[in-house]
Amino acid sequence: MEVKFLTRKNIENVIQDAKNLEKIVLPSQIKTIGAGTFSNYKNLKEINLNNGLIEIGQRAFANSNIETIIVPPSVVRISSSAFSECENLEKVTFLGELKKVSDGMFDGCKNLKVIDFPFETESIGMYSFRGCKSLKFLNLPNSIKEIGSYAFKDSGIEGLSCSYDTIIRPMAFIGTNIFYIYNTKDKLIFSKNLINYMDTAKCLDFSKLKYLKDFDIINPYLHQNNQKINDFIEQINKEKIIYIDPYKIEENYNDADIIFLTHDHYDHYSEEDIDKVINKNTIIVIPEEMIAKLLRKGIDKNSILVVKPNEEYMVQGIKFETIPSYNVNKKFHPKENNWVGYIITIDEVRYYIAGDTDITEENRKVKCDVAFVPVGGTYTMSFEEAAQLINEIKPQVAVPIHYGSVVGTKQDAIDFIKLLNPTINGVILMK
Q1: In angstroms, what CA-CA distances link 80 with 107, 127, 156, 160, 371?
Q2: DSSP 382
Q3: Could you give the angle at which helices 383-393 and 410-418 cross, rounded to 10 degrees?
Q4: Given this model, what pLDDT does residue 276 score?
Q5: Which are the contacts of 244, defined by CB distance < 8 A and separation ≥ 6?
Q6: Coarse DSSP helix, strand, coil percentages of the chain, rounded to the nearest 5 percent
Q7: CATH architecture under which domain 242-426 falls
Q8: Where are the chain's structural domains?
Q9: Contact between 335 and 355 (Cβ < 8 Å)
Q10: What's residue 3's pLDDT?
């Protein structure tokens, strides 16, 4: 007899000691996996779902040890809590047209990191990702119309990409540190529904909102009579004090809003000088390779923004880009370290701080108004090479740096300016 409806009973009738199975491959004729079929199968790590499967029943895999799930395109219904409490589950991929993520579908899946939604998904049910501590960001399709109450309660979610029209039900993000919702037009949107419940449900904790991947608007009607949002807007709009690779700071100013670090050499990462400018509200922007140093120093991880080359970010309302910074024919700054320079945009002026670099494929494409480039040679570009780069990218202003203290002389800066095209204004700031 051909079995199309798979149940716990008919599995255990056929397979002796079924609970000890580690891998299951479903035959092609299976159409339905019944309620609780594989629940509490603690040894089950892998299951190959057959194309032709239509429905997965309530708690079908609950509290099993499966690690990945690929849902075939034939599946159209998955009942509530189907994969709940699967603590080893890390990745889920939907290949079909699943309209609804059912209530509690991944409730308690604490190691779930990646979930690929089908483009047709319309709703995320109640408690669907509750307690998913490893899930940090979701890129939801434009088709999502509703996120249910408590959907991400006590999860690790920090950011969410979704349509501006998505309805977010009360308490959807309670117990999380979510700090941005990022819509399909690349604008930061705090949903009306989300904000309406913020005071009572604490869906958003603006006291922890220190940096954003992108920021454009907060609609005015959202912050009426809401002090947390008003405080945030005030912080974003105030003038900023920015340090880049602070070195040989004369006094204890402790006034930095943002510190940008390009790499970890002593003349760029100076703990003594960082201590002179940092305060409890300072955000430090660093390449990934430097994270251990700052944590050992006792810097709060929530005050650190880790960046990678060729990315765009925002910190305290300041937009910036990362440009790879490395040597081409020298060993001092290897490309594989992923050290960076920065293009920081302030009042629509783009400032390029090159870091310790040679002329590279990436910095030859830089578009900026003001460029700060090393000219001292030995470890970086020489003044001739720096002038070549500046004449190619054509900023309005060029400022020579990285000379006089470790390597190079003021004469390198003077000679650099002499080689600039007449349309470029060379400015010497360092004595």
Answers
A1: 10, 10, 21, 23, 57
A2: B
A3: 40
A4: 97
A5: 259, 260, 261, 262, 342, 353
A6: 20, 25, 60
A7: 4-Layer Sandwich (3.60)
A8: 242-426
A9: no
A10: 56
Residue 386's identity, in one-letter code, is: A
CA distance linking residue 377 with residue 357, whole number of Å: 10
Distance CA 391, CA 355 (A): 18
Its pTM surpasses 0.85: no
| pLDDT at residue 349, rounded to an integer | 93
Q: Are 254 and 276 in contact (CB under 8 A)?
A: yes
Q: How many Cα neighbours within 13 Å face the side chain of 93?
A: 8
The per-residue pLDDT for 369 is 96
Please name the amino acid found at residue 76.
V
Residue with tokens 């005015």: 220
The answer to whether residues 381 and 364 touch, using CB atoms and an 8 Å cutoff, is no
Beta bridge mates, 124: 101, 147
Task: Give mean pLDDT in consecutive 10-residue pieces for the chain, a chain of 431 residues.
Answer: 68 70 86 91 90 93 93 92 95 88 95 86 92 86 84 83 69 70 44 37 38 38 50 66 95 94 96 95 92 90 89 82 95 96 93 97 96 96 97 96 90 96 92 67
Query: What does the alpha-carbon distance between residue 222 and residue 13 come to, in Å, rounded to a whole number?
Result: 59
In 3-state terms, what secondary structure has residue 185? Answer: coil
pLDDT for residue 136: 84
Amino acid at 429: L
